[in-house]
């Protein structure tokens, strides 16, 4: 990476350059002074790279330039865990209390919840029952669409068509979904429950979050553009003191990442 570092190091506004290499790849990180025009800098970087590409290994691919804006990162990441509540309950408290209270703050742009259990309704349609009742999968999905049910495409597996209902709408129970009318031809009434098994379940988890050594929830906050990070973080922590009084005593909220802390240390 030395030819690259020496070339881009002459670009105006560069504050710091660091590089990391391992077998098969290298990464060069460039930090710029505040106020630097990054669009112009990106063009300058590409020009410098073109000038030194001939000095790179013959089998090296062309370097890729990626702009990273720290302002797009969450300013705060909070961990939420409990000694007594399971992940489903934690998710409910995070979505019903924590997220709405934080998002109503004018300085907060968005709040994202990760690590919990997302409820889904699994509908497994028996392919044989479809055929015996002279029905098609398209008829079933059309009937569900008529009930304002939002669902992704179905998948066929061992004679059973499985799909997930991710928008429950007006449905309050599994029985409500089972009683969706699929067909009524010459008095032959067929409900969804007659041809399918409906289960209240959770979306398959692709990652597990631990907070204080226990399964928990991660809550990420992004601030509104132009707002001061330190000020926003201070007001969020103040709001959290009020929110904690609305939650059961066994639920803990712990700062996992606080960018304002880094800024304050830098200033001091």
UniProtKB/TrEMBL annotation:
GO function term, MF aspect, one: xenobiotic transmembrane transporter activity
Pfam families per the UniProt record, alphabetical: ACR_tran
GO cellular component terms listed in the entry, alphabetical order: plasma membrane
Coiled coil: none
Stored InterPro entries: AcrB_DN_DC_subdom, Acrflvin-R
Gene3D superfamilies linked: Multidrug efflux transporter AcrB pore domain, Multidrug efflux transporter AcrB TolC docking domain, DN and DC subdomains
Organism: marine sediment metagenome
Protein name: Acriflavin resistance protein
Regions that span the bilayer: none
């Amino acid at each position: 990476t030395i030819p690259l570092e020496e070339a881009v190091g002459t670009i105006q506004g560069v504050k710091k350059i660091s590089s990391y290499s391992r077998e098969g790849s290298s990464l060069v990180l460039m930090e710029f002074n505040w106020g630097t025009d990054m669009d112009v800098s990106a063009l300058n970087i590409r020009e410098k790279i073109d000038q030194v590409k001939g000095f790179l290994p013959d089998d090296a691919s062309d370097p890729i330039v990626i702009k990273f804006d720290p302002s797009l990162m969450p300013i705060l990441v909070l961990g939420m865990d409990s000694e007594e509540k399971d992940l489903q309950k934690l998710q409910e408290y995070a979505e019903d209390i924590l997220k709405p209270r934080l998002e109503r703050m004018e300085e907060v742009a968005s709040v994202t919840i990760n690590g919990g259990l997302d409820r889904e309704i699994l509908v497994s349609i028996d392919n044989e029952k479809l055929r015996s009742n002279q029905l098609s999968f398209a008829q079933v999905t059309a009937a569900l669409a008529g009930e304002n049910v939002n669902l992704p495409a179905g998948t066929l597996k061992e004679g059973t068509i499985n799909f997930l209902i991710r928008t429950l709408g007006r449905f309050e129970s599994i029985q409500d979904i089972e009683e969706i009318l699929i067909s009524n031809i010459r008095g032959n009434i067929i409900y969804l429950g007659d041809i399918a098994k409906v289960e209240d379940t959770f979306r398959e988890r692709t990652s597990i979050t631990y907070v204080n050594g226990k399964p928990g929830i991660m809550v990420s906050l992004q601030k509104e553009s132009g707002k001061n990070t330190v000020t926003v973080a201070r007001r969020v922590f103040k709001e959290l003191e009020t929110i904690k009084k609305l939650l059961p005593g066994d639920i803990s909220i712990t700062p996992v990442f606080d960018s304002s802390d880094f800024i304050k240390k830098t200033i001091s």
